[in-house]
Automatic annotation (TrEMBL):
PANTHER family: L-ALA--D-GLU ENDOPEPTIDASE, PEPTIDASE-RELATED
Organism for this UniProt entry: Paenibacillus montanisoli
Keywords from the named record: Signal
Pfam families to which the protein is assigned, alphabetical: Peptidase_M23 (PF01551)
Protein name: Peptidase M23
Highest taxon above the source species: Bacteria
A GO molecular-function annotation: metalloendopeptidase activity
SUPFAM superfamilies reported in the protein's UniProt record: Duplicated hybrid motif (SSF51261)
Lineage of source species: Bacteria, Bacillati, Bacillota, Bacilli, Bacillales
Gene3D superfamilies tied to this protein: Glucose Permease (Domain IIA)
Domain M23ase beta-sheet core: residue ranges: 256-354
Protein's UniProt keywords contain Cell cycle: no
């Protein structure tokens, strides 16, 4: 087996290569295709009222997965990331919706399914888009399990045949992803058009915001494997912490403590624990100078009582694990600028978005895990 080294995407006919289009227009530059993978397959993609026909360079894409140069983590995880990326690229070619926006929709759906396991199920093997039977087949369709594209269109269902096999299957990864992309495509492919499509599909401003945030993160880093974490203060500095989530707090009225306090010297760097986007920055009467970062798990990471921020950061800035975002302080419990009412420490909290509401959970176990992982990585260097 040999690797094809060419700048053109080519068909293999009678032992000759016929250039079709620059490979950079079809697949990512980091993708390596072997000769056994370069078999052409005609995939017919149907949308309501018209048929889209695209010729894609695949040989059963899911059986012939490209290798991405940035792959990290366990083999099963990377296999899943690679297969998802192939699906995103495949649908992106046909719909002209950038892969990172499709990835953002899929990841948002994945986080909501994890947050609501009793009401949502994982339909596809790799794609986490969720649609009910009635949404897929049509509310008035007497056959809730209908897989016939023509009758689904008749009953105004969302299900579409994405892989050209003549059936719109709700548990098929390609059909699922193309069906939701088909809805967004009707509003256009520009960013504002995409946002309108998101609103029309979800009717939820929170969902629109999350997906736009996720898309920014994916676009910035250009990969899917963005789930590494770092401890919020540098390992090796003088700090201490214990599980205090749920304990009583009284300033400003009775409430519970929604986080873990990491005590450290004033001015110790505070770091992002994740890949994410800054969602909130500024003063809060309880948290003082605080920062909120949203990650791809749809977790909101809350950093409070800071003495200051990295001045290069603003709401909308993209951050990565270990990046300094501020410094330990003792701000809060009063009007802007109030400080010194308690020893310097970082209040670190995590909140999970369930689609309509967010709820706090104990970050202590995750902090211990990130601390162990980072110490392990340091020993390997």
């Amino acid at each position: 087996m040999f690797r094809i080294k060419t700048n053109d995407l080519q068909t293999i006919t009678a032992g000759q290569f016929t250039p079709i289009a620059p490979i950079s227009d079809i697949v990512p530059e980091s993708t390596c295709w072997t000769a056994s993978c370069c078999v052409w397959r005609l995939i017919q993609l149907r949308s309501i009222g018209k048929r889209l026909v695209a010729v894609l360079a695949v040989a059963g894409l899911l059986q012939c997965t490209p290798v991405y140069a940035d792959a990290k983590g366990t083999a099963p995880e990377q296999d899943a990331y690679a297969k998802r990326r192939v699906l995103y690229d495949e649908i992106s070619i046909v719909t002209r919706i950038p892969w990172y926006r499709l990835a953002a929709v899929d990841q948002y759906e994945r986080t909501i399914t994890k947050a609501r396991p009793k009401t949502r199920e994982q339909l596809g093997q790799y794609i986490s888009v969720f649609m009910t039977d009635s949404d897929w087949a049509g509310v008035l369709n007497p056959d809730s399990g209908d897989e016939t594209p023509a009758s689904i269109r008749w009953f105004k269902g969302l299900g579409v045949d994405g892989d050209g096999d003549g059936r719109a299957i709700r548990t098929n990864d390609t059909d699922l992803l193309y069906s939701v992309a088909n809805r967004f495509m009707q509003y256009g492919t520009e960013e504002d058009d995409f946002s309108i499509g998101l609103w029309q599909y979800y009717h939820n401003t929170r969902a629109v915001q999350r997906i736009r945030q996720f898309a920014r993160i994916y676009e910035t880093f250009g990969k899917l494997d963005l789930f590494e974490h770092a401890f919020p203060v540098p390992i090796g500095t003088n700090y201490s912490y214990r599980g205090t989530w749920g304990t009583r707090r009284s300033w400003g009225g009775y409430r519970i403590h929604e986080g873990t306090d990491i005590f450290a010297n004033h001015g110790v760097p505070v770091r992002s624990t994740c890949y994410g986007i800054i969602e909130v920055k500024g003063w809060n009467p309880y948290g003082g100078w605080r920062l909120g970062i949203r990650d791809l798990n749809n977790y909101y990471h809350y950093y409070a009582h800071l003495s200051g921020y990295d001045k290069t950061l603003a709401v909308g800035s993209i951050v990565k694990p270990g990046q300094v975002v501020g410094w330990v302080g003792s701000s809060g419990y009063g009007k802007p600028g109030t400080s010194g009412k308690f020893p310097p420490h970082l209040h670190y909290g995590i909140y999970r978005d369930r689609g309509l509401v967010e709820w706090s959970f104990d970050p202590y176990p995750m902090l211990k895990q990130w601390e162990r992982d980072e110490r392990r990585r340091m020993r390997k260097k």
